[in-house]
Give the backbone structure.
Amino acid sequence: MSSLPTRPGAFIPLTKLDEIDRRITELLRANSRMSYTDISKEVGISRVGVQARVNALIENGVIERFTLLVHPEKIGLGVNAFFLIEVEPKQIHEAAERIALEPAVTELSRLTGPNRLHMHALFANLAEMELFMQERLYPIPGVTHVDSQLLTKRYKY
């Protein structure tokens, strides 16, 4: 494995995927419960070979985790919302840490530009979302503006 310097003293490992690793990751993205035996049939190597490759992909950080996708509406979470949150520059990390602890928040990212966080959250209804905004989000020190948008239809996960 080779490395490229990004700044003095720091290196990012390069992991190049061959065609088999690429196919394995595609199959696992489509169905993370797919067995090594079934994957081996698809990619043309042994089950043990697939297992070794998956373990190497995990160890190298290519695969971070295996996840479960739940349809929120099926468990009573009918409001699917995205938020653009502006935060004072000096408080963005503290604000992000507090927001990330909220159970309703499913994803939180920092965007380029003037200190913005992009958040995705799920709520049972609009009243619960409003309560979250009023009691949990707006009181966070440094939050200066919140723009929310409701998801109406998802075309791709």
Residues 47-59 form the longest helix (13 residues). The CA atoms of residues 80 and 154 lie 10 Å apart. The longest strand covers residues 79-87.
